[in-house]
Automatic annotation (TrEMBL):
Protein's organism: Spheniscus mendiculus
Name of this chain's protein: Elongator complex protein 6
Gene: Elp6
GO biological process annotation, one example: tRNA wobble uridine modification
Family recorded in the similarity comment: Belongs to the ELP6 family.
Signal sequence extent: 1-22
Amino acid sequence: VLFAPFLQSCLLCNIMFYSLEGVNLTAAKERGQLVFLEGLKSCLDLLFGEEEEQSGQPSPLQFISESASNLKALFDFVRTSLTPAGTDSWKGPVLLVDDLSVLLSLGVTPVAVLDFIHYCRVAVCSQLKGNIVVLVHSNEDSEDEENELVVNSLCHHSDLILWVEGLATGFCKDVHGQIKIIRRVSLELTAEQDHVQIYQYKIQDKNVTFFARGLSAAVL
């Protein structure tokens, strides 16, 4: 879980595509602009009983050691992070969850995952006028019904969907895949259809290059 209140038009794309060029997360964390929950470290601290001894507070990942898949502690962590000390307040916060499918792998039920996202939407989007960005995995041939239930529900409630997939024609060294950008105009209860744009991309050492389908420099 990443929680960041600074300008997001650049940060969101960089985070989603794992290219942090121009965004110094360490500096942002030191300035109090970023709260970061490292899942692996928190799991280890919880299993060895170190986290609660140090902070005196329940671990955000408390559900791992419990029989019931209750994400209340994780939501409380998000809500607490939304309330900075003093009179300072965050404007336009963004909650980044990377990735939500892991919760299902840890035994959390789809209902609990969707309830968690619902409460986060109320706190971040409705109350604070912010945004939520969630990464999930899906596959047309997937037989994981629980994961597909979560994916379909998130797509139904999202304003913007970035669907990244490989090429239908198979591997290509110059084009690594394509991204479909779906803007959910239909959520505004208008007669317009959703806007769909499709681009292809190539992953490089420090960035990602996007281009219209069939317009790769290697092809031209």
